Amino acid sequence: MHPDRICPFVAGSHCCVRFLAIVALVVGLACPALAQTGVAALTGDDYAEILQLYFRYPVALDSGDAEGYADLFTEDGSFGNRVGRQALLEFVRGRPSSTVRHAPLTPLITATADGATGMVLNLFVDVAESPTVITRVSQYTDTLVKTSEGWRFQTRVNGSADLSDR
Question: What is the pLDDT at residue 39?
C-alpha cells in the first residue's frame, strides 16, 4: 500500500507527518488569537465567590443591613444612580419596612478582560400574603470586579425583565 494511503494516525507514514504539521499550524495560529482576547478564564472558586455575592445581596438588603449591603460593592460602586459607599448606605437606611423580599434566580456570569459581567432575574415576593405572591420580576445587569477583599459589584442596574424581544 502507498504510504500516503495509510491511516493518518499510523506513525511513520507521510500522511501522518502532514496531518501533525497541519494540527500544529492550526493550534499555533489559534492559541495566540485566543490569548489576544484579553479575557482571563474564571476559576471554579471565582464562580463560587460570585454566586455567594449574588446570594448575600438580598439578605443584606431585605434585612436592612446597610453596612453589609455596601460591603458587596467596590468603594466607588454604584446601584443605579447611587454612587459610592455613602450613597449605598443611605439607600438602605432610607428604605421603608416591607414584607416584599428579593428572590434572585441563578445568575448568568461571563468573564471579561476586567473581571466579569452578570445578569440575573429577580422575583419580588410578598411573604405577608398567603399564599406568597410574586409582585413583580426585574433584571439586574452587573459589572463585577475582583478586589483584595474578593469579588464585588462595581455597577448594578435594575431594569425591566421584559424578554419578549429575545
Answer: 76
